[in-house]
From TrEMBL:
It comes from the Bacteria. The keyword NADP does not apply. The keyword DNA-binding applies. One of its GO terms (cellular component) is cytosol. CDD domains: cupin_XRE_C (cd02209), HTH_XRE (cd00093). This is Cupin domain-containing protein. Residues 27-81 form the HTH cro/C1-type domain. It holds the Pfam family HTH_3.
Length: 209
C-alpha cells in the first residue's frame, strides 16, 4: 500500500476537535513538511527508527514523555498532536479539570500541575486501560508514582515492582522503566515527573498579574 501523500490540516486547535486525525498521521505530516527522514527524527528525539515508524502507522501509541521528545525534535508544541488542557495558574480546581489523551482507548491524562516561571516538575492523574503495557522509557529527571486504584506493576531496570492502592514508587527516570496494568479493570495513578512541565499553558492562558 502506498503512502498517503495528502497531509492533515494541522492549523486547527486539536483540543477542540472531537474527531481528529490519528497521532501517527499528525507526526508524519509535520516530519514530511520539514523534509526529515525517520532516521533524522530518531537522532534528534533519541527514539528508535522502528518505534517512530510504529507510531506513524498507529501500531504503537507513544507515552506523553516520548510525544514531547518528538515535538521538541520537530520544533513544535505537543498541542500539534494531542489536546492540551487549559492552564489553571497555581490552583487547579477538581471540577474544572480536563481529561486529555493521545489515542482513543489508551491512557488518559488529567493535568494537576500549574504553570509559572521556574516551575520544575509536572504532575498528572493517569488512567491505564485493562491489560495496558507501556513502552520501555528512560529520560532525564525523576518520577514519583502513587497508585489510587487497580493493580499496576512497574519494571525498573528489569526488576518488577507490584503496586497496590496507596503504594508509592520513587525512582530516577534515567533508569529503564515500563508500566503494566496487571488487572482486568482500569487503574489510576498519580504521577509526578521531576523535569520542566510537560504540558505548558497556552499563550492565551498565561496568568496575568
Amino acid at each position: 500500500m502506498s503512502d498517503v501523500t495528502t497531509s492533515p490540516d494541522l492549523s486547527h486547535d486539536v483540543s477542540t476537535v472531537e474527531s481528529r486525525p490519528k497521532i501517527g498521521a499528525l507526526v508524519r505530516a509535520v516530519r514530511r513538511r520539514q523534509n526529515l527522514t525517520l532516521q533524522a527524527l530518531g537522532q534528534t528525539s533519541g527514539l528508535s527508527v522502528g518505534y517512530l515508524s510504529q507510531i506513524e502507522r498507529d501500531i504503537a501509541t507513544p507515552s506523553l514523555s516520548s510525544l514531547t521528545r518528538i515535538a521538541h525534535a520537530l520544533g513544535v508544541e505537543v498541542g500539534q498532536f494531542m489536546p492540551v488542557p487549559h492552564g489553571s495558574g497555581i490552583v487547579n480546581r477538581a471540577e474544572n479539570r480536563e481529561t486529555t489523551w493521545i489515542n482513543d482507548g489508551g491512557m488518559t491524562y488529567q493535568r494537576l500541575h500549574g504553570d509559572f516561571p521556574g516551575a520544575t516538575f509536572s504532575a498528572f492523574r493517569i488512567t491505564l486501560p485493562p491489560g495496558f503495557v507501556g513502552e520501555i522509557d528512560r529520560h532525564d529527571g525523576e518520577e514519583f508514582v502513587q497508585l489510587e486504584t487497580g493493580e499496576v506493576r512497574f519494571d525498573i531496570e528489569g526488576q518488577p515492582h507490584a503496586l497496590a492502592p496507596g503504594d508509592t514508587l520513587h525512582f530516577r527516570s534515567d533508569m529503564r522503566h515500563q508500566a503494566f496494568n496487571t488487572s482486568a479493570t482500569e487503574a489510576a495513578v498519580i504521577f509526578w515527573l521531576g523535569t520542566s512541565p510537560v504540558l505548558r499553558l497556552r499563550q492565551e492562558d498565561t496568568p496575568r498579574g
